[in-house]
Amino acid sequence: xxxxxxxxGQLGDGTGINRIVPVxxxxxxxxxxxxxxxxxxAEQNGIKLFxxxxxxxxxxxxxxxxxxxIDGPYTLIAKLNRxxxxxxxxxxxxxxxxxxxxxxxxxxxxxxxxxxxxxxxxEAVSVLAKTDSIAPVVLSIEPVNNTKIASRSNIYVRAxxxxxxxxxxxQYSLDGTEWIDISTQNNGSFLWNxxxxxxxxxxxxxxxxxxxxxxxxxx
Length: 219
Known about the structure:
Layout: E1 4-5, E2 11-12, E3 18-19, E4 39-43, E5 46-50, E6 61-67, E7 75-81, E8 86-89, E9 102-112, E10 125-130, E11 137-142, E12 152-160, E13 165-173, E14 180-185, E15 189-193, E16 202-209, E17 214-218
């Protein structure tokens, strides 16, 4: 009777008894799989990696590697499922706002099957990451200074930053010294209820960028 093999590398003769015999895995298609379209781009809040989705049934996921030199060593930084087509790497260090600098990072990707067998890694892609030394800017607060406002008022804050705005906190003060939070929003639109307030009220906005730098503007 002929012997057959199954996906686990087991040999059987049809009797219902499996004979566990090592089988060469050279014909496993994962070993000749190539992940195409791999690229990297520095974005506002990290380095984003992209690749073309593999649709073969035997591809169960991907492994992402990073190095600080094109020749390595490469460290595994992520293991993703088969539906992934991108990954945002935020866990790296370049410098800080007080010591602006830039640094190159190199990435490779591989495909894996359900037994964690792995394809050859892709060619390395590189990207230059930079520290952020520019604070965000509050462009305007509306209503403008010396405006009379109702007990229920909309306040609008516009801010910009070279890496993008994370959120904006609106605060008020009765004396210009002690400040109280109204709320924090990521879109700069605030609804302020002030039923028990009379007289002059100070308002300020604190904008924070995606790397935690901040600036404040007082109305």
